[in-house]
C-alpha cells in the first residue's frame, strides 16, 4: 500500500472514534440528568374588596318630568265699545286687582244719547199699541149698534116695499128712501167689520216695532255700562297697554289678567314611564283621571334657587298622546295659596320651569346601590360563595345619586363597592365590610397599584 492510502485510512478511523466517543458521552450525561418529574401548581389569585349586604325593600317608583307653570285662567280683556279712554286703574303690571274693581272707563256721552233716543222710541211704540187697543174696543161697540140699525132699516124697507107693492099704500119715493138708508147702514157695517179685522194685525206689527225698540234700548243701556270695564275675577295684571286720553276700538286688547290661584303645568312623559312605570292604562285624550289620579301622587318644585319644598299637586287630565315622539302629556295643577312654602323658599309663579315627581305603584324587593356601582351594560359585581360574580340587573329608577335595581339575588350575596378594572370571573375574594353604600376610593387606588405592579406599568 502506498503511504497516501495508509494515511487516509488512519484519518477516517480517528474521526469515527471521536464521533463514537461523543455519542457515548452525551448518552451518559442524559442518564445522569434524569430525575423525578416535578409538577408546578398554578398560583391562585385573590382580591380583597369592600362589600355591602343586599338589602331588599319595597319602594314607590318615582318618575320625573319637567314643564313650565301657567295660570289656568288668563283673560285678555278687550272693550266691547269704542271711544276715548277717560280713566284707568292706577295699578301697574304685576299688581293684584280685586274682582269688580274698575280697570278703565270710556267716554259714554254718545252712548247715553243713543240710549235716550231708544227710550223715547219705546215710549212711542207703547202709546201706539194703547191707541190701537182703545180704537179696537170702541169700533167693536160701534159695530154692534150699526148691526142693530141695519137690521131695523132692512125691516122698515121690507115693510114699506110690501105695502106699496101689494096695497099701493105709501109712495115709491118713501120705499126708495128706506132702501137707500138700509144700503148705507149695510155698507157702514161691512167697512167697520173690515177695519176691526185689521186691528190684530196692526197691533201685532206695533208690538214687533216695540220689541225692536226695546232691543235697541237694551243694547244702548249695555253700551253705556260697557263704557266702564271691571275685573271679572281677582287676579294679577299681566299686561296693560292703554293710556288715558287715547282712543280704543272694539276688540283691541287692553289688559291681560291672570288668575294665580290655580296654576297648571303640562308635563310630557315617555310612554314607558307613563304606561309601564306609572300604570296609566285605559285612558285617552282629555280624560280626567278620576280614580287613577287618586292613586297617582305627585309634587312640584322649582329647579333654580331654593326649592319650594315639594309642593303637593294633582294630575288633572290627559292633554294628548304624541305617537311621533311616543310621549303622553299630563296636566298637573297646583294651588299655591293652600301650600305656601317657607320664607327661604321661592314661591312657584307663572313662567317658572319646574320639576314634577310622580309616584307610581310600589315595587317589591328592590335593592338600592350607588349609581357608580352600575356598569354600562347594566350589571354589578358581587361576591357569591367567596368568588367574584357578574350579575345582570334591571334598573327601576334613579334618585339623588342612588339607583334602585332588581335581580336574582341569593341570600348570602354581597355587593362589591370597590371599583374593579377588567375583573376575572370567579376570582377568589377576601371580604371586608363597607356599610356606607359608597364606592371605596382607597381600595380602588390599592387595586390599581397592584395591577400596575403585576403588569409593570406606571401611572
Brief description of this entry?
This protein is of the alpha+beta class.
Describe the protein in words.
There is one protein chain. This protein is an alpha+beta fold. Helix content is 37%, strand content 32%. It has helices at 3-33, 109-167, 172-226, 271-277, 291-295, 441-455, and strands at residues 46-53, 56-77, 83-88, 96-97, 102-106, 228-230, 235-240, 247-248, 255-270, 297-302, 311-322, 327-334, 353-370, 379-384, 387-392, 394-399, 402-406, 414-416, 428-433. The protein has a six-stranded antiparallel β-barrel with strand order 2-9-12-11-10-13. A five-stranded mixed beta sheet has the order 15-14-18-1-19, with no helix packed on it. Strands 6-5-3-8 form a four-stranded antiparallel beta sheet. A hairpin with a 4-residue loop joins β11 (311-322) and β12 (327-334).
Mean pLDDT: 81
Coarse shape: rod-shaped
Elements, N to C (H/E): HEEEEEHHEEEEHHEEEEEEEEEEH
Summed up, the helix count is 6
Strand content: 25-35%
Quantity of strands, as a count: 19
Class per helix and strand makeup: alpha+beta
**Rg calc:** 55 Å
Largest sheet composition: 6 strands, antiparallel, barrel
- The first-to-last residue Cα distance is 83 Å
Main β-sheet, spatial strand arrangement: 2-9-12-11-10-13
Unreliable residue runs: 441-459
The helicity comes to 25-40%
